Amino acid sequence: MLRWLIVVLLALIIFSGLQPWLQKLGFGRLPGDFRFRLFGREWFIPITSTLLLSMLAAAVARWL
Questions:
Q1: Which of 60, 46, 48 is closest to 18 using CA atoms?
Q2: What are the two backbone dihedrals, phi and then psi, of residue 41, each rounded to the nearest 5 degrees?
Q3: Distance CA 49, CA 31 (A)
Q4: Tens digits of per-residue pLDDT, 2-49?
Q5: Which of 2, 10, 29, 48 is most enclosed, with most CB atoms within 10 A?
Q6: H-helix or E-strand containing 61?
Q7: What distance in Å separates the CA atoms of residue 61 and residue 8, rounded to the nearest whole number?
Q8: pTM
Q9: Which residues fall within 8 angstroms of residue 48, CB to CB, at 6 or more apart?
Q10: What are phi and psi of 3, to 5 degrees?
């Protein structure tokens, strides 16, 4: 369980770092990607983009 939590945390950190580059490709603006402002800070929850990227990663892993 702890291993999956670490993997999810690392994936979110990587996704946050690649966010400007991925937005040029259209990720982060898909239906189901939530962006809202709370307490003076902008929050971004990329649910659909994360699912799409994980399906892509699973397809690549299965292909290799």
A1: 46
A2: -125, 145
A3: 9
A4: 777 777 777 777 777 887 887 788 777 788 888 889 899 888 888 888
A5: 48
A6: helix 47-63
A7: 17
A8: 0.58
A9: 30, 31, 32, 33
A10: -65, -40
